[in-house]
UniProtKB/TrEMBL annotation:
Protein name: Extracellular solute-binding protein
Transmembrane region(s): none
Pfam families reported for this sequence: SBP_bac_8
Domain of life: Bacteria
Keywords recorded for this protein, A-Z: Periplasm, Signal
Amino acid sequence: MAHSIGNGFPPGVFSQLTRRQLVQNGVFGAGALAVGSLGLPRAARALDEINFWATGTLDIGDDGWRTFAYDSGVKVEFTDNGNDPGPVVAKLAAGNANDIYDVAGLQGGSEKELARRGLIAPWDISQIQNYASVWQWAKDIPYLTHDGKAYGIPTVINADSIIAIRDKAGSVDSYGAIFDPKLKGKTAMEDAWINSVIFTAIYLKNSENAKIAEPGNLTADELGLVMEFLIKHKRDRQFRTFWNGWEQGLQLLANQEVWVMTGWEPIVYAARMRGVDCYYAVPREGYEGWANNTILLKSAVVRGRTKAAHQLVNALFSGFYGCKLGLLRGYVVPTDNNVAYATAHANAFDPAGVRKLADHVKQKFAGKIYWQNTRPDNFQLYETWWQRLRNA
């Protein structure tokens, strides 16, 4: 169970979270090694109970889920899936996850693979009334559909870039700062190809005129170019480290071992709470966009929980969940219902703050965005190259 997350960003909670962590194993080959047996919640007994298996940062805590159940009529048993796409998909494909959970939340990119194998079911959008309120550009996110059917619901969105310490790094507006020899030994990237490769590809495409078509889905030649670039800089000791997991990334900033690094925006919130004057840079090359999408597991249909699953998703867009999640994580559920809910419940949420957060994310997506892809065409080659980087 993942109900231990409280208000704010306590690092202990996130020490095991790797929100867009390296997919270390293939799903149907080496990935089977990651399946194991799950630590299982109690099985949902009633048709109005849903076992929700999603990224820990999507949890809103016991009090939040109680309010959610009161408003929606759906009781939620939340379990953190770690959001490492490789093991999650493997547990759905070869493990027992589909026997236990009803609805899952996962970084976008795996929907088509899961749908083709019959592991997830399509959503009936007509049963999700609040889906009409979802921002259109969120509905247009890649990876949501397969064969004309909706398999992913864009529940949480954001765009990632660079974290910089103001009095050490000054004004940063380019990923080039990560590779700047003047900052040698004071930069870092995440130990995850699903983030670090696309950041590097975005930089090379836009600032070094590299012939890269789609940074989120590199050809073999493009991937080789990007990885050789990273390996060279690693050997030159440009990077302090490749960080892994929430706590390490936060600690690097808190101790000021690193002055500039690619990373997640909630790390900025947490570092500021520790007194670090850091900021999230606006990169001239563009952001890495991502969405955590909600998927309907096929076994939930067999167990007769389709109606409750659709009620759950509808309630995610009703406003309360978006307000609560924004307060806890600084993440946005892409609907204006959040502002409407905050306005109607100003004793619990600050309407101006909710609107400001929404405008902040909208502003990011009004610029240049390259979508993260957790399952690029050559994902196994990505894994091979990333291991070479680690060994370099």
